[in-house]
Amino acid sequence: MCILAMGVGFGPYARAANEGGGCVLPKAVDISVLPSASALSIDTSRSYKDMKNENIDTINPYDHGSTTYLNGYMDGTIGMNHATRLGFQKTPHGDGLCLWYDTIEINMTIEPKIVIAAEAAADDCMYEATLAHEKKHVRADREIVNKYAQVMAQKLSDGLSQRGFVAGPVPAADGEAIAERMRHTVGQLLDLEYKKMDLERREMQQEIDSLEEYNRVMALCPDYKPPGVKETRR
Known about the structure:
This protein is an alpha/beta fold. Helices cover 39% and strands 26% of the residues.
């Protein structure tokens, strides 16, 4: 699965201040979304007992009376940070400022980690079956990041376009406050899209952890029985 990177310019080319004193963009706004992924790490050091009370997002698909255990899980995170650079210029008469978005860089990072119970990892069949299942979760994270790398740039552009890529003229004394508001708006728009991404991610991950999928994984290793467990479940 590839990780995409994109850079997009938004807005018309124009001068920083026109003859009438209004503010317009001197150049297109450069919005870049840069996804990256660290190498997959696999942890097999924890026992079933250690993992018994692990708090994971998966909604257990088995009935409430079933005895279940955890062979493994994907402990991945999707991080996001951004940097907003503004441009500014004094108005022709020097009594005001024009401010505009110059560049906005968004970094999205995936740090995938798979945890497999030590007892399951000691069995070649169950290790491979569990690893293959958990890698589906890793692929899902890459897919969602690839999708939202494109979505976020456009959504951010649309949101800023509604409010204006450029502000002013404003009194010079208010320049820093306006600049902070412009940066804050970027953060709010990105936070909204991140929450949408997180919800869609949870739904994708839950679809992978279906009862059918769990039964398929267990059927790959019919002879495997975890130590001290009579009923075999994921």
